[in-house]
Records
---
Amino acid sequence: MTHLMRAEFRRLLATRMWVGLLIAAAVLGGGMIGAMALVGPENFDPPLPGLDTETGVRSLLGILGYTAFVPAAAGTVAVTAEYRHRTAAVTFLFAPRRWQVLAAKLATYAVLGLAYGLVLASTAAAALLTVAAARGVTLGLPAHTVLALLGRISVAMVVYLLIGVGMGALIRNQVAALCVVIGYLYMGETLLMMIPGVNMLYPVLPGGATAALTDFTYVADAMSEQLGSATIQLLPPAAGALVLGMYALTAAAIGLVLPMRRDIT
Amino acid sequence: MSTDGLTVEVSHLTKRYGEITAVRDLSFTVEPGVITGFLGPNGAGKTTTMRMLTGLVSPTSGTATIGGKPYKRLARPSGTVGAMFDANAFHPGHTARDHLRVYAAMGGHPDSRVTELLHQLGLAEAADRRTRGFSTGMRQRLNLATALLGDPRVLLLDEPGNGLDPEGMAWLRGVLRGLAADGRTVLISSHVLSEVQQLVDDVVVIRRGELVAAGPWSRLAGPPAVLVTSPDAETLAATLATSHANAGTVLRVDTVGPGLLRVHGLDAPGVADLAAAHRLRVHELVTENTSLEQLFLDLTTGTLTNDRAATS
Ligand SMILES: Nc1ncnc2c1ncn2[C@@H]1O[C@H](COP(=O)(O)OP(=O)(O)OP(=O)(O)O)[C@@H](O)[C@H]1O
Ligand SMILES: [Mg+2]
C-alpha cells in the first residue's frame, strides 16, 4: 500500500492539476466570500439577512457548500484520466490487486481534498473577518463558531472529492462522468427539488446534508415557500455529517469493488 | 543460462465477448531463453490472449500461468513479468521520467532503475519532455522501458515493433535478442511475419482464436530449398528422384527453367555430393529459404496440410 500511495502522489504531483485546484479553493473561499461580504448579503437580489445576523453568516458560509462540485470534479478527472489515457492497463499490471489501487487513490485524494478544504476555509475565514472588520460590522456569530463551521465545510470537501473518485471509477468515461458529477451537484439536485414529493428527500441528499453542516436553511426555506409545501427541515449537523460520510463510503466502496473483475481492453 | 527461466503456459484458454469468440480452447507453452513469435492476422486473438496472461482480461474458461502461477498470484508481478500493450498508454502531461517514476514507485523498484533505463533505451534526451510530443518510436521505447522497470524474467510484448522504422526495428531486435540471451522468456506478437522472421526462434500461430501451429521456427518452415543450375539438369533430376526413393525420405524436384532445378528436402552439400558421385556437372548451388511469407499465408489461410502444421 505504501508503494501504491507513493506512486499516486507522484502521479498527482507530476501535473499541475493540484496547483490549479488549490488556486480555485483560494478564489472560491477568499475571493467569493470576500466579495459577497463586501457587497453585503442585505444587498443581494433577493436580499438575505445581513452579516450582523446569525442567519446571514450561516447563509454566506452555506453558499460555499455549493462549490463542492469543484473538488468532486477534480476527483472524477483524476480517476477517469487513467482510462482516458489508457494507463489503467499499466497500473493494473503493476498492481494486479485492483482494489488496492483504488484504496491508494482514495487515500491520496483524501489528502488533496483536505488541502483543498483547508485553503478554502482559511481564505474564507480571513476574507470574512477582514471585510467585517473593515466595514465595521459585528458578525452575527462569534469568530470561533465561524471557524468551526468552516472546519465542517473543509471536511465536506474531502467527502465530495471522494464521491468524485468513486463516481469516476464507476463511470470511467471522463466526459460522461464529469457531466454526471457536475451536472448533479450544480443543477441536478436543484431540479430534483422541483418535483413534488421528491423535495422531501432534500435533507438526505448530498446538498441537503452539506447545508445541514452549517445549518444553512436558505435553499430549503426558499423551496418550501416556492412550492407552498410544508417546511423542509434540515437534519441536525451531526446527522448531516453522517449522511455525507455514508455517501463517501458508498462512493469508496463502488470504487473498490467495481474494477475488480472488469476486463481492461 | 536458463536455470532460473520461467515457462509461460496457456491451457485450454477461451474468451467469449457475447457472440464473438476471441480465443477458443488455445493451448501452448513459451520457453525461456528463446524468443517466441506469437503470430496471426488482425483479429486473431493475440492481444486478448496476452491480456488474459496478465490478468487484465478474465478468461471465460481455461488457465494462463507464468512459472506455474496465474499473474495475479505472483508475489512480485512487475518484477517477474514485463508486459507491454498499448503504444499510447501515457498521461500526455507527464514526462518520460514522471511516467517511469510513478510505476517504479508502484512496483517498488528503485528510482536508479529509471535513470538507467532512460539511458539504456536511448531516451535520456527526451526524459524531461512531456509525452504528448513523443514520436511513435519514442513511445515504443518508453513502453519497453516501463515493462523493463522490474528487470523481469518474462517479457510479453504485444506488437512492440508497431510503427517503428527499419532503424528502430533493428534496434528493437538487438535489445530483445540480448534479453532472451540472458535466459529470459520472451513472447512477442505480430501480425506482420516479415517483422519478426529474423528474430524469433519459436513460433505460435493462431487464426480466429485457434491454434494453427506451434514449435521451432526451423521445423515449421521446413527444410530449405536448393536452387541448382546444371547443364545436366534432366539427368540430375532423375538421379535425385531414384536415390531418394531408396532412402525413403521426402524429396521434391521441380524444374524451374532450362538447366534450373529447385530441390526440396535435401541441402546444398547433399545435392553437390550426389552430383559428384554420378559425375554430373553443377554450375551453381543457391540455398533458398522457404518463403516465410508464403508459410505464414499458408498457415493462416489453412491451405497447409496437417502434417507440417504440427500442433505440439
Ligand atoms: N472488448 C472486446 N469486446 C468485443 N470483442 C472484442 C473485444 N476485444 C477483442 N474483441 C474481438 O476479439 C477478436 C480478437 O481480437 P484481438 O484484439 O485479440 O486480436 P489481435 O490478434 O490482437 O488482432 P490485431 O492484430 O488486430 O491486434 C476480434 O474479433 C475482436 O474484435
Ligand atoms: Mg492486437
---
Amino acid sequence: MDYRAKVGLRFITRRKGSLIAASLAVSIAILVVQVNSVIFQGLYNAIIRDQINYRFGHVYITRNENFITKSDKMLVNWLERIPYVEAAAPRLESTASINATGSGQTVRDYDVPVIGVDPVLDTQASTMYTTVGNGQYVSSRNSIVLGALVARDLGNPHVGDSIKLKFKDRNGLDQLKRFTIVGITQTAGSVGLDNSVIMNIDTLREILGRPHETQSIMVRLNDPTKDQVVKDLFLNAFPTRSDNFKAQTIEESAEQTLSGFRSGIALINLVGYFGMMSSAFAVVTIQMMQVTSKTREIGIMRAIGSKRKDILMIFIFQGMVIGAIGAGLGTVFGVSYTVYAKETHLTFQGSLALEVSYNWLGILQTDILAFVLAIVASIYPAYKATKLQPVEAMRFG
Amino acid sequence: MADLVLEVRNVDKIFGEGETAVYALKNVSFSVKKGKFILIVGSSGSGKSTLLNMIGLLDRPTNGQVFIDGIDPSNLNDNQISSFRNSKLGFIFQFSNLLSDLTVLENVLLPRQIQGTDTNAIEEAKSLLKTVGLENQMNKYANKVSGGQAQRVAICRALINKPAIVLADEPTGNLDSVSAQTTVQLMKSLNKKLGHTFIIVTHDRPQFGDVDKIITIKDGRIVDDEMMEVPTVN
Ligand SMILES: Nc1ncnc2c1ncn2[C@@H]1O[C@H](COP(=O)(O)OP(=O)(O)OP(=O)(O)O)[C@@H](O)[C@H]1O
Ligand SMILES: [Mg+2]
C-alpha cells in the first residue's frame, strides 16, 4: 500500500473517537436524507397509488368538454384487447342533494358528488370496492354506497337504511329517487371517494336522461410503465380530431394533486442537504483537531522527506476513509429505515400508508455526495497541515 | 576537497527584524570530511539547534551557504529540498522521534517508502534493527517501546537511505545513563562500520569519549573548532 494511504489510515483508525464522530456525522446526514425521501417520496407514491386505484387508473380517458357518446362497451372491449391492459371501467359523475331519512326523519338537504360505476367492470379496474368496510359495493340498480364523510354528515345511517337523492336531469328538471344504502366506503387519509356517493352507472344515466353516455374510462394496466404506449394506441385509434378524446397518464391526470406536493419534496430535500452541509462542517472540525494533534508527526515526516502534497494526501485520504465509513453506515441506517417503513406499511396518524420503494439510485447519489463532501471538507485541514514548517512542527516535544 | 561531505560558509541566522532581531548564528564557517564523527557543543541558547537545522535544510540561513556533498541546495524548490533531505540526510531528534501509529519496522521503512524505492527495503530494515538489537520488537507499535529503544529505532530510520550525513539533536537528552551509553556506542560503532558522517549536538560532551572533532558555539559563533586525533588501536 502507498505509504500516504497507510499513514492516513493509521492516523484516523487509531483515533477511534474522531473516526466514529466524523463518520457518524456523515452517516446521520445520509439517514436524514433517506428518511425524508422514504416519508415524502413514500407519501407521493401513496397518493399516486391511490389516485390510480380509486380515480384515474393508469390511463384516464375523457372527452374534451363533453360526455363520451361512443358505446362504453365498445371502448372497454377495444381497450381490453391491448395486452398491457388489465381492465377498463366507465364512470359517470354528477351531483345530487341528499334527503336522508335516517331513523325515520329527514336530517337535512345535502349536496354531494355522485359517481356512477359499472358494478362488474369497476371491481376489475379499481380497488374502490375494497374500501367498503361496512356492507358491500354497488350492485343492484337502486343500491348506493356512501362515502364515510357523507355518512358522518348524515348522522351515520345504517346499511339497509334508505335514502332519497334529488338530481337535476339534462333538461334541468328535478328527479327524486330512493336508494338503499348497501355500504360505507372509507379510505385512509380520505383520498378515495369519502366525500361522494357511489351508485350504479345505468341508474345514474337513466336519471340524468343520458342513456348511453359516459364521463370517463379508467384503464388499469398490468404493466404501469406502458401507460404512454396505451395512451398513444388509443389516441391513434380514436383521434382527437374526430372524437375529441383526451387520454392522460397518471402523471397528467393527477398533476394538480401532485404538483404542490413536488415542491414540498424539493423543500424537504433542501433540508436534508443542509444536514449534509453541517455534517461537512463536523468533518472540518474533526480533521482540524486531527491535524493539530499530529503536528509533530507531520514535522517528522517533512524532515525525513515527505513533500507538501504527500501531507495533503494523507489527510485527504483520512477524509476518504471517513466518507467511506460514513456512507457505509449511512446506507445501513437508511436502508434499515426503508425496510422498516416498507415492512410495517408505515402510516402517520391514520393517514394513508406510505408506498415505500427502494430507490437505489437515490441512495447511491446520496452516498456519493456524502463521500465527496467528506473529502471536500478535508481539503482545508489538509492544506493547513501542509503549511506546517518542519522546524516549527518539531519545536515542542 | 572531494571528500568534504559538508561545508558551512559564513552562515548568519537572524530571527525576527529590527529591534527584536536575534542573531542566532554569526558568520559560522567550518567543514566536515566524509565519515567523521563530530560533536557540536555549547550552552543552552547558544545556537546549536539552529545550526543543525541549517545543515539539515529544515531552515534557510539568512546569509551564507551550506554545501552538502558538494551541492548548494539554496536554489532548490521545496519538493526538491524534501527529496534531498530524504536521500542525503538522516535525522535523530531528542524525543518523540517516531510515528506512534506505525510499528517499529514501519517507522524504519518510512524514508524508503517516501523515496519510493522499496526493493530489499524490508531485509535492510530488519538487518539494521538486528544490528541495534531490536529484531524482537519489530512489530510493536512505536509508542510501546522504551525511550532508549525508540532512539535505536530512530538511528535505524536515519540510516536506511544510506545518507551522506546523520544529524542528531541531543539524541541522549531524554535517556537514563545506561540507555544513553548504549545509544552513543551504537552511533559510534555504526559510524565505524558503515562510514556515515555523524554530526551530533549534545550537552554531555564526556559521554561521547573520543570523537573526530568538537565544534563549540557561544552566542552564535564558533569559539573552538578543535581537531582531535583518533587514538589508533594496535
Ligand atoms: N524560531 C525562532 N524565533 C526566534 N528566536 C529563535 C528561534 N529559534 C531559536 N531562536 C533563538 O536563537 C537562539 C539559539 O537557539 P537554539 O535553539 O539554536 O539554541 P540551542 O543551542 O539549541 O539551545 P538548547 O541547548 O537549549 O537547545 C536562542 O536565543 C533562541 O531563543
Ligand atoms: Mg537545541
